[in-house]
Each structure stands twice: as C-alpha cells, then as structure tokens.
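Next comes a concrete protein, fold included:
___
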Amino acid sequence: STQSTWEPCDGPSFQRVSELARSRRVAIAFGYAESEPSSRAIYNSAMLVDSHGSRLLNYRKTHLYGSYEKAHFACGDVLPPVVDLALPHRACAHSPLTTEPPSATATCHRNNSSATIPGSLRVSLLICYDLEFPEPLRVLALDSAQMVIVPTANTETFTNLVTTRARAYENHCFVVYANRCRTEHCGWLGHPLQFSGVSVIVDPAGTIVQTGAGGRPLTVVGDDFDGDIDNVLVAALNLHTHAYKSVREAAPYLADRRAELYRN
C-alpha cells in the first residue's frame, strides 16, 4: 500500500461506491486501505454499503497475514457487527401479486405458498485470512449472521475451494468469497504476486453455488498461470425461511455447542 491509496472511511472510494449503489439500487461490499487521521494508522478495511448508498458497516481486518502485511497495516481490534441488509423486492414475472428479491439475490418458489422471503438478511464481513480461523465466523454466526462476505487477495486455491465450504456448513450461513485475480507487480515485495481468482459463493449446506473460471481451479505454475481472468459471479440464492432446515436439523452445531468448556 502506498500513501496515495490511503483514505478515510468517508473518502473517495466510499463516495464513488455510494453513488453506484444508490444509482443501481444494489448493495456493494468493497475493500480499501483505510487511514485513521487521529492515530495515523493504516488498516486493511472492508465496507458494506446498502442500496441507498448508506454505510452499513466498516470493518478493519483483525488477522494480518505475513510480515509484509503486518509491516504495512495496523491490526483491527474488534470483529464486525452483524447488520440487517434490506432486500429490495420486485414482482415475479409470473404474477404481479407475488414478490421476490432480484434474481441474483434469491429464488422464488412459486409452488410453495407457505414459504416466505425475509425483508432483510443478516450480513457481516471478514477479510481474507480472517476466514482461515474458525472463531471469527462462528462469533458472527452466533450473532445470527446469515451471510458473510469476504473480500480476498489469495494466491492459493485451497481456502477458496475447501475452507469456505467448511465455514459455511459448520455455521449454516452463506459465504461469499471474492478473490482477486491477475498478476500484480509489487516493487516493495521484490517479486510479482499471482492471485488465483476462483471466487466462490457457498450455501449453508456447504455446496458451491457458483465459482469463477467456469468452475475449474486455476493453476499457479510459472508462465502457465491462467489467473488473468475476470468474472462476475451471479447466483440465485434460496432465502426462503424454510430453506436449509434439514441441514440445521442434521448437523445442529450451533445448538449443540458446549460453551462452558470453551472459556479461557
């Protein structure tokens, strides 16, 4: 990170994203290098902006990876809150009397009149390496998180394809893992970084709903690296109140916790 990219939480990145979110009527999560004027600290941060352009939450990464990240960023000291993200509704194509969120957000079960779509979704953020620890997402799940969005810059694919599924399944929540792709030439590091892409959207059953690169893992091998592929992932997610009930009943991890054994 260079000084030219540092900015406060209400800086130009937020202003631009806020404008986009408001004009397109979508919620946007994004990462940036946050400067804290009072302490002069720089944080690896992520923000969630709602469809009105308002900031719902700002999170400073709490688990920094490697000496290079620890040399450039201060460590956040608190996990993010879980917030209510309103789901904009529109009429289903088959009936003007039935509503559903946009197709990229949820499906509409036309034959199940007893199922309802919530008016909001409980959402939070983590950043990259945070997800590789079981505790942060579990804390968010215990605070009723239904979806955790994870902006990421990872050079491997194990976390993308394995860890994300474990975290989603053991906490019964959606994990949206947006990983950087392309090769980045970092002068300060001394060698280029080849980011693997392979972003994934995982449902509470641990199933990969959508992934980048056509579902095939990217191979990071010298000149054969094929991570220079940009994809926009669009997935229909089932947000009905009954969805994944069988998963929660078959593996009631949150209900069966022995919290008294985990203290200290």
Summary: DSSP finds five helices and 13 strands in the chain. The chain has a mean pLDDT of 82.
